[in-house]
Amino acid sequence: MTTHQRSFRAATGRIEANHVSIRLGRGSSAFEAVTDASFEVSPGEFVCLLGPSGCGKSTLLGALAGHIKPAAGVLSVDGQPVKDPHPERGIVFQHHTLFPWKNARDNVAFGLKMRGVKRRQRRLEAEKMLDLVGLNGFAGRYPGQLSGGMQQRVEIARVLVNQPRLLLMDEPFGALDALTRLRMQELLLDIWEQFRKTILFVTHDIDEALLLADRIIVMQAQPGRIHEEISVPFERPRMTGIIASGEFMRLKQHCLHLLHRDRPGDTLPRLSPLGL
Amino acid sequence: MTRFHLGRWLRRAGSLAICLILWQIASSLRLNLGIVTFENVPLPVDVVSAALEFLRSPKFFAHISSSLERVLAGFGIAAVIGIGLGLVIGRSRWLGDFLQAPLELLRPIPAVAWIPLAVLMFSSSELSMIFITFTGALFPILLNTVHGVESVDPRLIASARSLGSTRTAMLLEVIIPGAAPNIVTGLVIGMGTSWFCLVTAEMIAGQFGIGYYTWESYTLQNYPEIIVGMILIGLFGMGSSALLRAAGAALLPWHTKDSK
Fold first, then answer.
1. What are the tens digits of pLDDT across the range A52-94?
2. Which domains are delineated in chain B?
3. Which residues of B134-145 are buried (b: 16+ CB within 10 A; e: fewer)?
4. Are A114 and B164 a contacting pair at CB < 8 A?
5. Which of A59, A125, A181, A197 could disulfide-link to A173, CB 3.0 to 4.6 Å?
6. Is the ipTM of this complex over 0.90?
7. CATH number for the domain running over A1-88+166-276
């Protein structure tokens, strides 16, 4: 990596949300999923959206990806209002959305193909990306032949190959077993240290948020809104050992307190964050 | 693994053999069960010798090739129109609504009912028979394609949009491969229906063809030949469906690997 690239990278990926409200559903079943959310994310920052189910964190992410339009307020990335889905804002979901009919290499190369990159170059770049996520030798496998963790690795590679300004992640490790999840968290931190992309990461797992994020935006449900921002002071690169430290415990207590104050009522219907 | 396969093949051969033996017994005893009689049913042996004779006759090739040509033409046109129309209807709600009424009305009309009108509409009986074959194959292909397009996972469409997919790429890279297993199913079913529609058409309007051969044998009282014709129809129908299924499996490796 040259210094030129580094300075260029650092300049992109600023997120600004200005009094954003998002309505989901149609007709009489429509409701406000996110109410008056305002926040900022600096270029290269790792921010977690933490909150209980129904707090609108996935909806907010879907809006940033461009799949849902806010009813009010402005969402912008590097000063440009978000209008439609774009490869510059890559999104990874809890359950993979790889094309079952393409092998891992062709899945990763999809974005390059859409940009008109030549076949040989596509294959080369896709395989480089697969190496980066630790899938050396799995390029020819179809998604159905990969484990859950591997599928998510391909998914991350497929988004990264487009050199996005931001990486939007919607509970990407939520469906994995504990050990695989830990490995994936380490992998993600490793990738983030290398590329310093802005990452907005949705989770309801306090440990995960504290381990990964520079800053945590805590959300609450009914109505879905931003409640508090917490900065996470741990030095990087982080070791999983910090989980046992006193500071970690203190922050975790604080988060638990915030989440618990959220009165459990009847939960809102879970709608697809794609607005489909 | 191999023993398992051997067992299956033995079972299949066995059931076929039992059918043949029952047929042999029933027709050699000239069994009369009141509502159905085997008095005029030829013996399997006679059928085999009639089949051998038909294979050697110069007319064999003419019958087979004219049937194959009609099926290929009718089925081919149905495949192009059925898949094309199916993709459009599956993607566009407006066009789906627009075409629904006429298609729903035409769908239940059996191929046989089309014969008189087809004879009146087309300049040659050849074309009218191809048309009948076409009507038989069209609806299974069309309906399965529409169903396949509609059942493509919307999450895949959304993620393709996120990755910068253009409209054309969406169709070629996401919709068609996603609908492909259903399209193959439609083609396999359509192939079967086009065979039986063809035979019906040939019985009425043909000069050559397996259906015509079967019917001609009846009018000439060549009873073993009737069965030769029937078996040929079955073999060709089965063979062409199997070919399509194999082609589908070869074209969709991810699908077969996934499900096994």
1. 888 899 999 999 999 999 999 999 999 999 999 999 999 999 9
2. 1-41 (no CATH), 43-253 (1.10.3720.10)
3. bbbbbbbbbbbb
4. yes
5. A181
6. no
7. 3.40.50.300
